[in-house]
Design goal:
Number of strands: 5
Mean pLDDT: 73
Largest sheet: 5 strands, antiparallel
CATH architecture of the largest domain: 2-Layer Sandwich
Order of helices and strands: HEHEHEHEEHHHHHHH
Helix content: 55-70%
CATH topology of the largest domain: Alpha-Beta Plaits
Number of domains: 2
Length: about 230
C-alpha cells in the first residue's frame, strides 16, 4: 500500500475509533465473503464492519489516545465500529459467532477502556437501549402516578375541610329571622316560671267583700232578707 493510501486509512481508522460509541475487534479467519456480507447485514445501521491491518490499527489507536489495544492485534482482524446500541451489536456478534465458530471475539474498546473478550460477551447479555428506555418510561409513569396520588389526597382533604368550615361559619336562618314557634314556647315557659303572674288575676278576699255589699244594696229583696236574718 502506498504511503498516501496508508495515511488516509490511518486517518479513517483514527476517526472511527475516536468517534464511535464502542469498537469490537474480531478474528474472521475461515469466514467466506458470503459470511461477511451476512454479518454486515445482521449488524444493520448500528455498526460498520471492516477488515483492518494490524499495523495501521496500532498507529490509529495511538493517535486516538487508546492504550492497551496492541496486544489484541494479532492474526486477521476485522473491527465492528459501533455507532448505535452497543448491547445490540454485541449480541449480534455473539449470536453470529455461535452459528459461525470461525468468528472470534478478541477484544473491545468503549468509554476510554480496552475490554477483553469476556467483557465484550457480557455486553451481549445487557438489555438493549430500547428495552431500557421502555422500562425507564414505565418506572417514571408509575412514579408520576404515585406522586399525583400523594399530592391529590392532601388537596382533596383540605377541600373537604374548607367546605366544612364554610358551612359551619354560615348563620342559621331560623335564628337570624326569628321562629314564631320558638318565641311562643319561650313566652309560655317564662309565664310558668313567674309565680306573680297567677296572683295578678285572682282578687283578694278584702276586695271581694265590698263588691258583694254593693251588689246587695242594689237589690232590695236581698237587703230585706238580710235584715230578717239579723233579727
Amino acid at each position: 500500500m502506498a504511503r498516501p493510501d496508508k495515511a488516509a486509512t490511518v486517518a479513517e481508522l483514527t476517526t472511527k475509533l475516536s468517534g464511535s460509541a464502542a469498537a469490537v475487534l474480531t478474528e474472521y479467519r475461515g469466514l467466506s465473503v458470503k459470511d461477511l456480507k451476512q454479518l454486515r447485514r445482521s449488524l444493520g445501521d448500528d455498526a460498520t464492519y471492516a477488515i483492518a491491518k494490524n499495523t495501521l490499527t496500532q498507529i490509529a489507536a495511538r493517535q486516538a489516545g487508546i492504550e492497551g489495544l496492541e496486544e489484541h492485534l494479532t492474526g486477521p482482524t476485522a473491527i465492528a465500529f459501533i455507532d448505535g446500541d452497543v448491547a445490540t451489536v454485541a449480541k449480534g456478534l455473539r449470536d453470529f459467532a455461535k452459528d459461525h465458530p470461525a468468528l472470534v471475539l478478541k477484544a473491545g474498546y468503549m468509554d476510554g477502556r480496552v475490554l477483553d473478550a469476556a467483557t465484550v460477551k457480557k455486553l451481549a447479555d445487557l438489555e438493549s437501549r430500547d428495552v431500557l428506555l421502555s422500562k425507564l418510561a414505565g418506572a417514571l409513569k408509575a412514579s408520576l402516578s404515585q406522586a399525583v396520588g400523594l399530592f391529590a389526597a392532601p388537596l382533596s382533604q383540605a377541600a373537604r375541610l374548607f367546605a366544612a368550615l364554610v358551612e359551619a361559619s354560615e348563620p342559621d336562618p331560623a335564628l337570624a329571622q326569628g321562629d314564631p314557634t320558638t318565641e311562643s314556647s319561650d313566652s309560655a315557659t317564662d309565664a310558668a316560671a313567674d309565680p306573680a303572674a297567677p296572683a295578678a288575676t285572682e282578687a283578694s278576699p278584702a276586695e271581694s267583700e265590698p263588691a258583694a255589699s254593693a251588689a246587695d244594696a242594689a237589690d232590695p229583696t236581698a237587703a230585706a232578707d238580710a235584715a230578717t236574718e239579723t233579727e
